[in-house]
Specification:
Blueprint lengths: L1 H9 L12 E8 L2 E8 L4 E5 L11 H7 L4 E5 L19 H14 L5 E6 L1 H12 L4 E7 L20 H15 L5 H11 L10 H8 L4 H14 L4 H4 L6 E6 L6 H10 L3 E6 L6 H4 L1 H15 L2
Parallel strand pairs: 3-4, 3-5, 5-6, 6-7, 7-8
Antiparallel strand pairs: 1-2, 2-4
Helix pairs in contact: 1-8, 3-4, 5-6, 6-7
Length: 304
């Protein structure tokens, strides 16, 4: 049951796209491991923190490419994923505090005094935690279908409730197959195919999301959530004093309850909550014009 729960959570935080814009790929040896990050474009720096946890940043290259047309968009592989390497994967090497240190290492490597942080889904959790620790380094914060400022989401999350009976039965079948030792790509893809519809309003994107769902690291996923419980993740009090602009974006059909976004809006002094009418979990996919227009507006505020 624990495997199923954390594996389902992984599906909250993904998206696959193609890489086209010229990019710079860089590596840093910090905090007991190698951190890999990529830079797209030039201008106001925007760090994009992808979801997961346990997913690499490849699925967010399309978002970075789009933002990189006007800004300096940065994506990175969170510790132990993609090309960010660790000598061991354990509760000692996978913690929220070490993940924050990795983000700071990237900022220092790029010689940035401050930057805008865009966190999607679990990335919104990490973005909020980073901002609570380094508020003077964050000129603006964008929470995109964020997991929230505390652990309250995890008592109300019902992912499979959005699936049909057939989809739930098929998802459970393929999940059991994997639990019983079927490690084939085919089994993972079939599981992804039946899970992906939970996160999409436009079902034409199901094949891309299903493919991405085959690439998660469930061990890292579990370790991150264990650490969140260990530290009692709750950034609410620290973020009440954050003075810079905050944009909170959520789809009308999102699997994350709107109460999570409404709570964030009530905490931040200078925040705006945008509900995307045609979107579920991927605003830049299903309501792209409104999504990017509002991000442009937020970024214009950080330049004043």
């Amino acid at each position: 049951m624990k495997y199923i729960f954390y594996s389902l959570l992984t599906g909250l935080f993904i998206f696959l796209s193609q890489i086209g814009l010229a990019q710079q790929s860089q590596f840093i040896d910090e905090n007991g491991g190698i951190i890999h990050f990529r830079v797209f474009g030039d201008g106001t720096p925007v760090l994009i923190i992808n979801g997961g946890p346990g997913m690499n940043s490849d699925g967010f290259s399309g978002l970075a490419e789009t933002l990189g047309e006007s800004y300096k968009a940065i994506i990175y592989d969170q510790r132990g994923t993609g090309r960010s390497e660790l000598p061991e994967i354990s509760s000692r090497s996978i913690t929220l505090d070490l993940m924050v240190k990795d983000i700071e290492a990237i900022r220092k490597e790029l010689k940035l005094e401050e930057w805008v942080i865009l966190g999607h889904s679990f990335g919104g959790i990490l973005a909020s935690y980073y901002t609570s620790k380094h508020p003077t380094r964050v000129s603006g914060l964008i929470l995109s279908s964020s997991g929230g400022l505390d652990m309250s989401l995890f008592s109300s999350l019902n992912i499979t409730g959005r699936l049909t009976s057939l989809q739930r039965d098929s998802l459970n079948y393929w999940t059991r197959k994997i639990q019983n030792g079927d490690t084939t790509y085919f089994a993972s893809l079939q599981r992804g195919k039946y899970l992906a519809p939970a996160y999409l309003n436009d079902k034409s994107f199901v094949p891309k999301v299903a493919e991405r769902l085959t690439q998660g690291n469930s061990e890292i996923n579990t370790l991150v959530y264990q650490d969140m419980r260990r530290i009692g993740y709750d950034a609410t009090e620290e973020l009440k004093g954050f003075e810079n602009p905050v944009l909170i974006i959520q789809g009308k059909h999102d699997i994350i309850p709107v109460a999570v976004s409404e709570k964030a809006r009530s905490v931040f002094k200078h925040s705006k909550l945008l509900i995307l009418p045609n979107s579920s979990h991927y605003g830049w996919l299903e309501d792209s014009l409104l999504y990017f227009t509002e991000i442009d507006s937020l970024l214009s505020l950080t330049q004043n």
